[in-house]
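By convention, each integer encodes one residue's backbone shape. The lines below illustrate.
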Amino acid sequence: GMIFGAYLFGKLSDAHGRRVSAYLGFALQLLFGTLASFAGSPRTFLWCRALAGFAHAGNLSIFVLSVEYAG
């Protein structure tokens, strides 16, 4: 999930800013992580974890943002 998320969240960060990307990543990771904990089948769990990994790429923009500030 992180491979695709890194590409899409990178485009989102460039277009709308790193803060928007980070907040969206946090929200999606919270949502899919919570859904994974209530998954009723291994397939549902796998999809939720893959989407949480996709969202984790958005959280990496916080690292980039902090490096830009520390510059």
User: Anything to note?
Assistant: The mean pLDDT is 88. The longest helix spans residues 42-70. Helices lie at 2-16, 18-37, 42-70. Residues 63 and 69 are 10 Å apart (CA to CA).
